[in-house]
Structure formats: structure tokens, C-alpha cells
Amino acid sequence: CILLDLVMPRMDGFQFLRQLEAEQADHPPVVVMSASVTSAMLRDGQAGRLCSMIRKPVEAGQLVAAVRQAVAG
């Protein structure tokens, strides 16, 4: 499972996800974390096969549930 933040120094999370898709079609499940989730982000994420998107600050139980869901398929 990949835990991915959207705000990163060299590329944003969706750029990373698109590059991952291009290089590895059968990549691990992805859980995105963001302080502000918009409908455009969700639309972009669906194109990149996101398992889930959770709003930061993330509570431990929420993160564990998202990872369990991601690895369960």
C-alpha cells in the first residue's frame, strides 16, 4: 500500500500517481491524504485508481481503516 500526500516538493501527488501508472500498471493500492479534498481531486484520483482519499489531520483509526480497505481489495 502506498500512502501518498498531495503536496510534495518536486511533484504533487497526482503527478506521482500518473507517473506510477505509466511505469507500473499493476501498482500497489494508493491511499491519498490531503488537508483539502476537492471534487476535482477526487475526479483526478479516480483516473489513477485511488483506493481512498482521507482528509488531514488523519486520525490513527481512520488511517488504519483506509489501509486495511486498500490491501483487502
Overall mean pLDDT score? Answer: 84
Strand order of the largest sheet: 1-2-3
Q: Which spans of ≥5 residues are poorly predicted at pLDDT below 50?
A: none
Topology order in helix (H) and strand (E) letters: EHEHEH
Percent helix, as a range, is 40-55%
Number of distinct beta strands:
3
Q: Nearest-angstrom radius of gyration?
A: 12 Å
Which structural class fits the helix and strand makeup? Answer: alpha/beta
The tally of helices reads 3
The largest pleated sheet is described as: 3 strands, parallel
Shape: globular
Report the span from N to C terminus.
Answer: 11 Å
Relative strand content: 15-25%
Overview of this protein structure:
Helix content is about 45%, strand content about 20%. The chain is an alpha/beta fold and about 70 residues long. Strands 1-2-3 form a three-stranded parallel sheet, with helices on both faces. Helix 1 links the parallel strand 1 (about 1-5) and strand 2 (about 30-35). The radius of gyration is 12 Å and the shape is globular.
